[in-house]
Structures are given as structure tokens and as C-alpha cells.
Design goal:
Elements (H helix, E strand, L loop, with lengths): L7 E2 L2 E4 L7 H9 L9 E4 L5 E2 L1 H11 L8 E4 L9 E8 L12 E6 L2 E6 L5
Antiparallel strand pairs: 1-4, 2-3, 5-6, 6-7, 7-8
């Protein structure tokens, strides 16, 4: 069984009890950096839970072949090694939006240029 990270979000609604000379000052205090989330009395907004499908699927694609963004890779370019060399793995192209890429296409950064390559050319 595999383990996946599913990005999600939800809303909270609450209030802060603040002593101030005016409502404007109370708002200013509430918005200040000194106010901590622990100062807020809050509750979950019913029905607000959402899964971030796009980001979650992108992450799943990025784990598909075992590479993660930032990994150092060696590109074995099929041009008899002319352009082969080390680069940094950026991402896989999303297989949902590029279904014809059954061999797996990735983006790497080599010499400050992003290049689309076949995953099978990486080591």
C-alpha cells in the first residue's frame, strides 16, 4: 500500500475580544502581527473542507518515477552524449494533461535552461 499526501483546506470563523478606545483601534490591533491565532475563539465553517485536486495530482505525478523536485539527475541525451550532463529535476509533465506521454516526460534544469526530456534518459 502506498502513502500519499493530499492537500486540503477548510475555513474557520471566529472572534477576538479586544479592549480598545474605538472599533477602528480594535480592528487595527486584531490585524497587527502581535495577534496570534491562539487569541481567536473559532469554529470550523461547516461544508468548507476541500481537497486541492490539482496540487495533489501534480505531487502524485512527481512521485511516479521516484524523483522529487530538486533532485540532481544525469541526463543521457540520445544525441551521442553531446548535450548529456548533470541537471536538476524540476517536475514531471502532468500525465492527466499529457496522456500521450506514456514513456514519462520530465522537465529538468540544465545550464539555467529548462528542458523536456524522457524519464528513461535520466539516471
Amino acid at each position: 500500500m502506498s502513502k500519499y499526501t493530499v492537500d486540503c483546506s477548510w475555513e474557520m470563523y471566529g472572534h477576538i475580544d479586544i479592549e480598545a478606545e474605538s472599533v477602528e483601534e480594535a480592528i487595527e490591533i486584531a490585524e497587527s502581527e502581535s495577534t496570534k491565532l491562539s487569541d481567536v475563539t473559532s469554529d470550523y465553517v461547516s461544508g468548507s473542507f476541500k481537497v486541492d485536486y490539482d496540487n495533489t495530482l501534480d505531487q502524485a505525478d512527481n512521485c511516479l518515477f521516484g524523483l522529487r523536485p530538486g533532485d540532481e539527475v544525469h541526463w543521457n541525451d540520445p544525441d551521442e552524449g553531446t548535450c548529456s550532463g548533470h541537471g536538476i529535476f524540476v517536475k514531471y509533465l502532468n500525465l492527466l494533461t499529457h496522456p500521450d506521454d506514456i514513456d514519462g516526460v520530465a522537465v529538468i534544469k540544465k545550464d539555467d535552461v529548462e528542458i523536456e526530456v524522457f524519464v528513461k534518459e535520466l539516471s
